Amino acid sequence: MSVHKHVFLTLLFSLFLPMSLAGHAQSLTRQSLDGAWQFRQVVSDSDTKSPAPSVEWMPAKVPGDVHLDLIANKRIPDPFYRDNESKIQWIEKAAWEYRRNIDVTTATLKHQHLELVFKGLDAASKVYLNGEEIAAPANMFREWRLDVTGKLKSGSNELRVFFPSPIKAAEEVAAKDPWRVRTHTDAKVYVRKAAYEYGWDWGPRFVTSGIWQPVSLEMWDDARIENLFVEQKDISSTVAHLDVQTEVVASKPGLATLSLSYGLKDAEQKTEQKVMLSAGLNRLSLPVNIDKPALWYPSGYGEQPLYSFHAKVSLDGQVVDTADTKAGLRSIVLHRDLDKWGRSFEFVVNGIPVFAKGADVIPFDSFPNRVTTADYRHILQAAKDTNMNMVRHWGGGYYESDEFYSICDELGLMVWQDLMFGNDWQPGTYDFKQNIQQEVEYQMRRLRNHPSIVLWAGNNETELAKEWNGRGNLPADVHEHIWQDYLTEFSGVLAVTAARVDPQTPYWPSSPSADYEDLSDSFQSGDNHDWSVWHGRVDFADYEKHHWRFVSEYGFQSFPEMKTIESFTTPEDRTSIFTPVMLAHQKNGSGNSLIQEYMRRYYGDPKDFASFLYSSQVLQAEAVKTGAESFRRERPRTMGSLFWQLNDCWPVASWSSIDSEGRWKALQYYARRFYAPVLVSPHVEDGSVAVYVVSDHVQAEQAELSLQVMKFDGSIVKQKNLSVQVKPLSSEVVMKIPLSELLDAGTDPADVVVVARLHQGRKVISSNLLYLTPTKKIVLPKVPIDATLAKAATGFDVTLKSAALARSVYLSFGEQDATYSDNYVDLLPGEPVTIHVTSEASLAALQAGMQVRSLADAFSPTTKGKE
């Protein structure tokens, strides 16, 4: 054999050898760049002057943001206290930069690939390495992976990130769009950033910048895993057909081994295969079948098992990278079938049509990096504990952390996930469309394995925004132009991305939307935001006139409790809800006036500031209760009730059911009752009391219904009992009695209450009160409430008892914090209610601070019927 032929055969054979034979394969390693950085204000002639311009470098923390770093360095006051928010507006008009050094060894430089990975930069920025600009990101919702191979040197390397004023940066981009002025598009939306920072009607008004997600230096040679996706092709209780997709980025062609282990707890299975990698991105697929899978169910319908999946890529026996994920196996379908009312809108999970019960979620803090695991768990556990099975993650904030969705997975809380487009009209430029496509692809790939996510919704109220800000009067050609841009983005670019990246999860173009179907009085479709109550100033009963297919927003405001108010006010701020500081913590323009208007309509004027805070919470709870019960009674025509909103991001008067300090308002306690799995709901209609029984259970069951007409002193005017078969997944009128039969001649409807209770044996599974007269015309008895506090095995028990009806009885302990098994309870005469209390305070301290308040206590004595 000639020398030339031998060389040729050697080269040919080498093409089919594993790439690692050229040298020992190395595992991917990451060097965290989180922690201590430095930052400073960049001062130039064009910068808006700040109260104390800073040119020196100060300590900073990454992940974080400018405001948190300024607070830590004592350069600005607490933005949440009093009216300090107004004193920090200069920050968003200034430019800022961050820096740190990266120490690099000679060994590090030998790697084939060196990449700086920014998980999130907020938002317009420029990244410099050793004085060279290497990127100009302008989207806080994307990961930025920057190749710095050949740009790093041995020893110290300076990494700087410059943030221009976000206001100015957005204006510069917007100025390049010739359609911007004609379409009335706000400049702020041209840079992808959380909308709520620009001011919302529940949040503070300041815009921040910073490195808000982790940063690392990744070093790798032959290959790395880009993504691991468990696509659920077909799921049933018999078998789960999965396609486990591993995306591998390789330096060059070669043979590798892809291994996969998967299972539930200790029942692990393994599979592997040899794969020929090409240079660049490789999409590798392993089919997996699981017999008799343990299915993931929403809360209230079953368990939430999570299967673990572990993938690894090996070259020549050396593991070069691994990836882990979890997945709950479930089928999810959004049914949109024609029926006698129009087109349905219902989530069907594992074949079960689920009535969605829950609330909308906003950012957990105005500063995302202050949110802790305990914060997430406290709010989301509260949702589960009050019988919710869904939260809608609102589209004006930011895509939440993996931890948020993992907790939802664990708790069985379905997530309606808006994409981050909130209310404002969006630009239609080609660059913008490319940017949002990459953003949504990144976020969907990051989150798509979470079983809790059951819907991707394109935006919040952007579809409605085509008529806002004067756009309804635009010339026909301009209006057509913006509508085509909208369709291209939300039913084109993003819809196609969702279908390609996460085909197992439904996509919906907007909330609210009817998916562009023509609606009439006789045809209903899609989801709805019902703001007739509150913004429309109508009575609570107006909810009962609406027959939406799915209600994804409705609500009513209230104030937080006194202890939360005290955290941001001084005594002079607490003389009225209209003091400057109280108004500064009310971002809905007419919010305080609206609460007062509804208060006077239903209850009258509370006797003092503390009474107004308390009464506002009862008012809110009664408003939302009216809507929630009405929507549940409409099942299956209506299949979802998500009230606005579950949580808060700062201390404020708002629609939340849990305030910014994590304290439950009256609404959260009410929600446990009106979202009970089996609900008894008496309702006046057609001159009769119709008693509905609503069930979310999948099996029929027997119960006993007791209906009493009771005077406020406890005497019974009338009583009816009925054995009821509670039908599964249904709403049914089980008893209907004319009012004339319930009320004896001469009985004043203002003197009685209808008490409906559903029993199973001695257990009351649902109870409800129905008043036959508007609350303002009822003279509630003002009677002392006996409260007995005793030490329990864990915590304390408080037993409340009243000789006459006491409405919305609120238990508190002054300065002592506590959690309650229940609160804002209705006391029926002679029927004690025991509330379990957990607190770090002593029995003596709790006893000293214990306060009990009822609705009758909040108002000065009035005359029945007084207007």
Strand content: 25-35%
Shape: globular
Major sheet summary line = 6 strands, antiparallel
Number of strands: 44
Tell me what the CATH architecture of the largest domain is. Answer: Alpha-Beta Barrel
* Estimated helix fraction: 10-25%
Uncertain residue ranges: 1-23, 863-867
User: What is the CATH superfamily of the largest domain?
Assistant: Glycosidases
Counted up, domains total 4
Output the number of helix runs.
Answer: 16
Q: Give the overall pLDDT as a whole number.
A: 93
What gyration radius follows from the Cα positions, in whole Å? 30 Å
Q: Regarding CATH, which class of the largest domain?
A: Alpha Beta
Can you characterise this structure?
The chain has 867 residues and is an alpha+beta fold. The protein contains 16 helices and 44 strands. A 6-stranded antiparallel β-sheet has the order 3-2-4-9-6-7. Strands 27-26-25-24-23-30 form a 6-stranded parallel β-sheet. A 4-stranded antiparallel β-sheet has the order 1-10-5-8, with no helix packed on it. The longest helix is centred in the middle third of the chain and has 26 residues, at 476-501. It starts with a helix and ends in a 14-residue tail after the last strand.
